[in-house]
Design brief:
This protein has helices at residues 6-15, 21-34, 45-61, 68-80, 83-92; strands at 94-96, 103-105, 110-112, 118-119, 133-134. By secondary structure, it is mostly helical. Helix 1 (6-15) crosses helix 3 (45-61) and helix 4 packs across helix 5 (83-92). The termini are far apart.
């Protein structure tokens, strides 16, 4: 059996609900830093959506910590996934919300930072205790 490609390992770290989201981000960024900011440590797909929405949400609320390594990681992941064009393509993808099972474009759905499940605007509060919903 072959080991998972490192990029998938990065996604798995961020998508693992065993730790709070901010802890997962810190560990992911630390892995990236420890590995010389290797491109294969960058996330994509659902992990990128969660990370970038978390980042945008913190900036809007004025709670972004301004950690240069985290900021650099997010910028590198965004760029590695096609920048603005890649982000637009990601947002056009469809997913089902776990709360009602309806299909939505990702631009119209939110994500719980606890379990990283997609939820729609009709969700009755966070899925997970102490988790923020972003997107």
């Amino acid at each position: 059996m072959t080991a998972n490609p490192p990029r998938l390992q990065g996604n798995r770290r961020l998508l693992d609900p065993a730790h709070p989201f901010t802890e997962r981000v810190a560990r992911l960024v630390q892995d990236w830093e420890d590995d010389g900011r290797a491109g294969y440590r960058l996330v994509d797909g659902r992990a990128l959506l969660a990370l970038y929405c978390w980042h945008l949400d913190a900036a809007r609320r004025g709670t972004a910590d301004g950690d240069p390594a985290t900021t650099a990681y997010i910028a590198a992941a965004f760029a590695a996934n096609g920048g603005a064009d890649g982000w637009d393509a990601l947002l056009r993808e469809r997913a089902d919300c776990t709360c009602h099972g309806q299909s939505w474009r990702l631009e119209n759905i939110s994500i719980c930072l606890g379990c990283l499940r997609y939820v729609c605007y009709r969700v009755d509060g966070p899925c997970c205790p102490d988790a923020r919903i972003v997107g």
